[in-house]
From TrEMBL:
Functional note: Has a role in promoting intracellular calcium ion sequestration via the exchange of calcium ions for hydrogen ions across the vacuolar membrane. Involved also in manganese ion homeostasis via its uptake into the vacuole.
Comp. bias regions, Basic and acidic residues: 1-24
Residues spanning the membrane: 79-96, 102-121, 133-156, 168-191, 211-228, 248-266, 303-322, 404-421, 428-448
InterPro entries: CaH_exchang, CAX-like, NaCa_Exmemb, NCX_ion-bd_dom_sf
Name listed for the protein in its UniProt record: Vacuolar calcium ion transporter
Lineage of the organism: Eukaryota, Fungi, Dikarya, Ascomycota, Pezizomycotina
């Protein structure tokens, strides 16, 4: 075997010696060194944190935390923070004056807006620190927390004279989708179109989201269509379809949840690169990107604290608000349809709406549509199955047997919005028309009568059909 060359031994000894400084401390080899990464503000970027979300601080700094949270993400979000005094007032009046039902409802309704806005802002700050697609998904999911909390509180409440929480949940499911599709998207088109002749968006965002909403809408109304058609026949007019309705609804909920998992896989894994490219290009179109990059940001710890405070407030407010719905429906004679279809969705979606409208105003239409359509998809494919499963576990008859009015409205709304999204362009006229449709639906729901206690509208229709069939037999 050849002996090692003296020159190689000398070089090796020199390299080993060069790995130690004059004090004898071992230094890393130059090949293993990595230069620290700094973002646009000169802050050293923490490992695993997106440079755009790096705050340059660690832990929690109370003064900076309050200042950043109050400033929020947009001027209208900042103005919403002036409503924070309503939060302690709403909680206090629930215990101090439990008989003041109307004031408890009004104060908690208003207090829900700033609390939900803090969830939206905390989620947005957290999303900045994550990869683009995953960040949007996390932000949208956090925005749906208010809705999930309200649904879970409602499903635990017993039905009473003139008030059925399941009917309110059913209306709120469809109302949430309507508020996103018509009100929020309409305001995005309108506000974004005021400064521009038209805005464009990528078909990967619009077509995928609209296709999912159309399929989800069909799945949600199919149990209602199935049962309503059979109840209008002579043979099955007097048949009780309650057990069949529950079985169909639970099977549909399982399928919808599976569809949500496939959608997440599609967005996060198989087509992750496409969504990343679209959203990164959208960031470059941001009209005030330089301002967003320069402003102070929350640390990761502060994001978690902000979300914890907001979730605590939202949970308390949701409980107090739901407790007063019976009074509003029974004593103030506000219709179930209006409460579930309009009032509850508007307040629970306030944070998401403000975020999406701000993005549309800054010409980030792909981000705005990702939030709007993503929220609709989560309501239909995640939140709805969750409340069906919880009702199943609690022994509640939580079905998807929606009233005919609600089912028709949701399908027509999906078709209207789908037509506007088809050309991948938007302007303020399209936005105005979406809001007009939403206002018409709100007026109709305000006058829509409550079904009899313990009956859905399709049950009433079925009984009317059975009575008509009986009259025909007697005349024969």
């Amino acid at each position: 075997m050849a002996e090692p060359s003296p020159e190689k031994d000398a070089n090796h000894t020199a390299e080993k010696a060069g790995e130690r400084d004059h004090g004898g401390t071992k230094r890393p080899h130059p090949k293993n060194r990595t230069l620290p990464l700094f973002n646009h503000n000169g802050h050293r970027v923490t490992t695993g944190i997106n440079p755009d979300g790096e705050s340059g601080r660690r832990g929690i700094h109370p003064i900076e935390f309050l200042q950043i949270c109050f400033r929020s993400s947009a001027p209208w979000s900042k103005y919403v923070n002036f409503l924070w005094p309503f939060v302690p007032a709403a909680i206090a009046i629930h215990f101090a004056a439990p008989s003041a039902h109307l004031w408890i409802f009004i104060l908690n309704f208003i207090a829900m807006v700033p609390a939900a806005n803090l969830i939206g802002f905390g989620g947005q700050e957290l999303a900045r620190k994550l990869p683009k697609v995953f960040g949007v998904l996390v932000e949208t999911t956090l925005g749906s927390v208010v809705e999930i909390v309200l649904f879970m509180v409602l499903i635990t409440r017993p039905a009473s004279d003139g008030f059925d929480p399941i009917q309110v949940i059913q209306a709120a499911i469809l109302g949430s989708i309507l508020a996103n599709l018509l009100l929020c998207m309409g305001m995005c088109f309108f506000v974004g179109g005021l400064k521009r002749e038209e805005q464009t968006f990528h078909k990967a965002i619009s077509e995928t989201g609209n296709g999912l909403i159309l399929v989800a809408g069909m799945a949600l109304v199919m149990p209602s269509a199935f049962i309503a058609s059979l109840r209008n026949t002579t043979e099955y007019g007097n048949h009780d379809f309650g057990p069949e309705s529950l079985r169909i609804s639970r099977a549909t909920a399982i399928i919808l949840l599976i569809s949500y998992v496939v959608y997440i896989w599609y967005q996060m894994r198989s087509h992750h690169g496409l969504y990343d490219d679209v959203l990164e290009a959208d960031e470059l179109r941001d009209a005030d990107r330089h301002h967003d990059l320069a402003k102070a940001k929350l640390t990761l710890t502060e994001c978690i604290i902000a979300l914890a405070i907001a979730l605590t407030c939202v949970s308390l407010i949701a409980v107090f608000l739901v407790d007063e719905i019976h009074y509003i429906v029974h004593e103030r004679h506000v219709k179930d349809a209006f409460v579930g279809l309009i009032l509850v969705p508007v307040v629970e979606k306030a944070a998401e709406h403000l975020t999406a409208i701000d993005e549309a105003y800054d010409n980030q239409m792909n981000f705005a549509l990702a939030h709007v359509l993503g929220a609709c998809v989560q309501t239909a494919l995640l939140n709805t199955p969750l409340v069906v499963f919880v009702g199943w576990g609690l022994g509640k008859d939580m079905s998807l047997d929606f009233e005919t009015f609600h089912a028709v409205v949701i399908i027509l709304a999906i078709l209207v919005v789908g037509n506007f999204l088809r050309d991948q362009k938007s302007d303020y006229l399209e936005g105005f028309l979406c809001v007009v449709v939403y206002v018409i639906i709100a007026i109709c729901s305000f006058y829509y009568p409550n079904p009899a206690e313990g009956e859905s509208e399709s049950t009433v229709v079925g009984e009317a059909a059975a009575a008509e069939a009986g009259h025909r037999l007697l005349r024969a």
